[in-house]
């Protein structure tokens, strides 16, 4: 019975993943090679050319999504690291309060939060209207339906996913290690770059994965804050599934996006050095 205990513990999670992840993916893989329509039905023809056609047709949206996701992830790291660092080392007894404030936006629906930014950034909204009235901005100035609005929405909505793993990694750093570095005549900058930063890399690694992947596949921010020139691949997949009812194309696009992100993740892990990250996490 003791030998079976580990497998019994894994069983519930394994069944959950098998039923709600593996089975739908197998079904979607089958749909991606079918031909037909909703009226006459879809027939399995193993039409793998759908992948190439979809990639060529929506190449611009793929590249735009990757670019938006990359820029938003970099901005998230730049904003999240100082915040997580301050909470971990300067938060004192109020760390829980600060973390609650970070998580507070999650008490409101993702869509509602994004729609609220649409009202705030509207041409005659609460932010721009007073500035235009004061002559600080031209009358034709606008933020909505621009790249800045979409990337700003992505950063706002996914920033907590970057803050939390970095905070967890920094929280594990023993302050005595930093004091030891300073005792060895290391400056504050050297103590940070050679001690704190390497030890916090596992959190940065996890944060990038938790933000870049959903940012790249996101369609809500581009749909609400962006315009026709800001369409992301997630918007195309949504339209093919729910509007055009072109399930094979939508499934092929989904698998292509998944494959591209997996390749990017493995390349990122290799460039960062997963062995070094794991060694730092074990310290």
TrEMBL record:
The chain crosses the membrane at residues 7-27, 66-86, 98-121, 141-170, 191-213, 250-269. It is found in: Cell membrane. Keywords: Cell membrane, Membrane, Transmembrane, Transmembrane helix, Transport. The keyword Membrane applies. It is a multi-pass membrane protein. Pfam families: BPD_transp_1. Gene3D superfamilies: MetI-like (1.10.3720.10). It comes from the Bacteria. The keyword Transport applies. Residues 62-268 form the ABC transmembrane type-1 domain. CDD domains: TM_PBP2. Belongs to the binding-protein-dependent transport system permease family. CysTW subfamily. This is ABC transporter permease. It comes from Streptosporangium fragile. The lineage of its organism: Bacteria, Bacillati, Actinomycetota, Actinomycetes, Streptosporangiales.
């Amino acid at each position: 019975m003791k030998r079976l205990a580990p497998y019994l513990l894994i069983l519930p999670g394994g069944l959950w993943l098998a039923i709600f992840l593996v089975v739908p993916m197998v079904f979607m893989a089958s749909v991606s090679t079918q031909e037909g329509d909703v009226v006459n039905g879809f027939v399995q023809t193993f039409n793998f050319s759908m992948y190439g056609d979809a990639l060529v047709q929506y190449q611009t949206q793929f590249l735009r999504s990757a670019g938006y996701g990359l820029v938003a992830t970099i901005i998230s790291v730049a904003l999240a690291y100082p915040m997580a660092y301050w909470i971990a080392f300067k938060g004192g007894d109020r760390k829980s309060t600060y973390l609650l404030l970070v998580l507070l936006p999650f008490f409101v629906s993702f869509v509602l939060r994004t729609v609220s930014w649409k009202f705030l950034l509207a041409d005659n909204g609460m932010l721009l209207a007073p500035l235009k009235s004061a002559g600080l901005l031209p009358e034709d100035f606008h933020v909505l339906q621009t790249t800045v609005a979409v990337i700003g929405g992505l950063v706002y909505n996914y920033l907590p996913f970057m803050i939390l793993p970095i905070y967890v990694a920094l929280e594990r750093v023993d302050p005595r290690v930093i004091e030891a570095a300073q005792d060895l005549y290391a400056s504050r900058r050297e103590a940070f770059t050679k001690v704190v930063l390497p030890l916090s890399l596992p959190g940065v690694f996890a944060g990038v994965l938790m933000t870049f992947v959903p940012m790249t596949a996101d369609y809500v921010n581009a749909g609400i804050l962006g315009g026709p020139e800001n369409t992301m691949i997630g918007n195309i997949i949504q339209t093919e599934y729910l509007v055009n009812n072109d399930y094979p194309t939508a499934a092929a696009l989904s698998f292509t996006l998944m494959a591209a992100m997996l390749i990017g993740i493995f390349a990122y892990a290799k460039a960062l050095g997963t062995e070094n990250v794991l060694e730092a996490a074990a310290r």
